[in-house]
Structure formats: C-alpha cells, structure tokens
TrEMBL record:
It comes from Bacillus benzoevorans. The lineage of its organism: Bacteria, Bacillati, Bacillota, Bacilli, Bacillales. It is found in: Cell membrane. Belongs to the binding-protein-dependent transport system permease family. FecCD subfamily. The keyword Oxidoreductase does not apply. It comes from the Bacteria. This is Iron complex transport system permease protein.
Amino acid sequence: MLFKKNAQRFIGLIVTIFILLILMCASIVYGYTDTSWAMVWDAFQNNNGSNEHLVIETVRLPRALIAASVGSSLAIAGVIMQTLTKNALASPDIFGVNAGAGFAVVIAVTFFSMGNLQAIAWVAFLGAAAAAFGVYGIGSFGREGLTPIKLTLAGAAIAAMFSSFTQGFLVIDEAALEQVLFWLAGSVQGRKLEILTSALPYLLIGWMGALFLASKLNVLSMGEDVAKGLGLHTGFLKIGAAIVIILLSGASVAIAGPIGFIGIVIPHVTRSIVGIDHRWVIPFSGLLGGILLLAADILARYVIMPQEVPVGVMTAIIGTPFFIYIARRGFHAK
C-alpha cells in the first residue's frame, strides 16, 4: 500500500485529479488534426469557425469528457462487483453485463430503428440488468451456492451467449453490421456531447450511490455474517449495489459501447495504492479509470494514423496481461 495515512491519500487524490485534467486537455489538443494548446485556448475564448476550432469544440471536447466519464464509471462498477462477489476477476465485461447491455442496444437500433438517446440508455440498462441477474442466478445453482469460481464461469457463459446472439443478428442484417460494428468494439470516437448529457443523470446517480455505499461495503467486506451481526441489512445493500452497477455499466455501454478490462485493472491498482477502505477506493478508482481510458484513447489515435484503433482494443491490449496475472494468482478479492 503506497498511501497509509489519510493525509497522504488526500494529497494523492488531489494529484490524481490534476493528472486527469491534464490528460483531458491533452485529449483535446492531440490527434490527426494538427492543433496546439494555444489554439485550444483561442477556440474557447474566440471561436472563428475554422476547421481546427470546430474539431476542438464539437469532436475532441465531447470525446475527452466521455472518455473520463465512461472510464470512471466502469472502474467504480468493477470495485463494487469485486466486493460483492469476493471475486478478483469480477467486472462488467467479464460477468457479461456489458455484453447484455450491448446486445439490447443492437436489437433496439437494428430492429426497431431506435434513435432516441434516452430510450437507448433505458434499453442498455435492461440488457445489463438481465445479464447481471442471469449470472447471479446461474452462479447460485448447486450444493455449494454462490462461489467466486462459479460466478466467473457463469459470467463467461452469459458474455459468450450475448456476444453470439449479437453476432448472429448482425450477420442477418448486413446494413446493421456497418452501423454498429465500430460501436461494438468500444469507442469514444465520433460521439456527440448530447449522448453524454442524456446519460449524465444516470451516471451521477451511480457515482453518488457508490460513494453513499462505500462505508457499508467496508462492513460487508468483513464477511456477510459479521455484517449482519453489526446490524447491516445486507439484502438491501446488495440491491442498492446492483442498481449502481447497472446504472454505471448500462450508461457506459449506451455511450461508448462495451469497453473491457478497466473494471478489472483499476480496482486492483487502486487497492495497492490506498488499501481496502472503500471511502478512498471508490473515488480513486473513478479518477484512475478516467485516466486509463483517456490515455488509451490518446494512444489509439497514433497507432495506425491516419486511421484510429477503437479504444476498446487498446484497453484489451493493456488489460489482458493483467487479467492473466490475476487469474493465475487466484479468484479471491477483498
């Protein structure tokens, strides 16, 4: 643990916020269209309608805000899932929550031509909820009840099922394939600010709900029997935590598509920095999740320039070795 005292953690939090803001600014400045820091400042102070100024305001600013918001949401959802399931591999993508939300959105867009952003967000929530409850139900079957390994296997099965359904429907409708293929890879490119503002109320509820549950998650992490002995209503806590996970995961998928590995990597990195107190783990994870997705998105612009790699591919490249390491170390998570 890097920061052992609250004073150190507070200073670390301020530094992390600063790094997040710097990366957001860098995301606005750097890319295929050649711009500078001075040009960005001028675009917000005195927009002259030039191509560079339009790119800065209508493309890169929404992109930076979306990357920070989605990365934060996925990281926080990963923290809560790992605490609830006692599973080091728990995350929205591994447990099929992202795949369920993505499948629901694909069905809504391709078969019902749904274009309303609010409606798409609700569809994503329904898909995320269906996947979450499916994993929990399947993982609870058997004599031993719910175990980390059974949850992981159930999550892999649900994710594979929804991914197969999605690919099957897209093969049937080739026009839809062109429409949603890049979105399915996970991307913040080309997203308008309106899609973030439409989902922002759900994200805000999820973020505030996670902070509200932080101290209660500390009690739950000591064991369910201990938590009940201390007067914690674990059933209500799990319902509240599930709602937060669905809000954050569903809204993130509705905005940027299914982006993986952030929910696995960031919680473990955060615990190595600040320990296991969720009152610090959740805000730190939110900030570090935004930092990771912003950094991955900036790198994605330069790998095969002038083309761009979907940011979901970049997070997979970063996260896969970490996933293998965690899987080899064991499934248990505090």
